[in-house]
């Protein structure tokens, strides 16, 4: 029973390679593509993002100032005022 249909654009070399593989293995293209997609999805279902991979390392060598990027102008003015106060 056909539920959904998907059109995929392949380069001519990808199509030739797929045709060769299917002919060699005696499999229809649709089966090969479905199996490849299933493997791809299984492999990537538990993949973590780059942020998650390094989350425990971020901020280890930080200044301890949590809002440093937000309050930099205020801190800069304070430093300059202290330096140039007469």
UniProtKB/TrEMBL annotation:
InterPro entries: Arc_rbn_hlx_hlx. Gene3D superfamilies: Met repressor-like. It comes from Marivirga lumbricoides. This is Transcriptional regulator.
């Amino acid at each position: 029973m056909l539920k959904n249909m998907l059109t995929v654009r392949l380069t001519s070399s990808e199509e030739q390679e797929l045709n060769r593989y299917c002919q060699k293995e005696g499999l229809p293209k649709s089966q090969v593509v479905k199996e490849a997609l299933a493997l791809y999805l299984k492999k990537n279902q538990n993949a973590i993002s780059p942020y998650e991979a390094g989350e425990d390392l971020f901020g280890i060598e930080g200044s301890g100032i949590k809002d440093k990027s937000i309050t930099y102008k205020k801190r800069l003015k304070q430093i300059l005022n202290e330096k140039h106060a007469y």
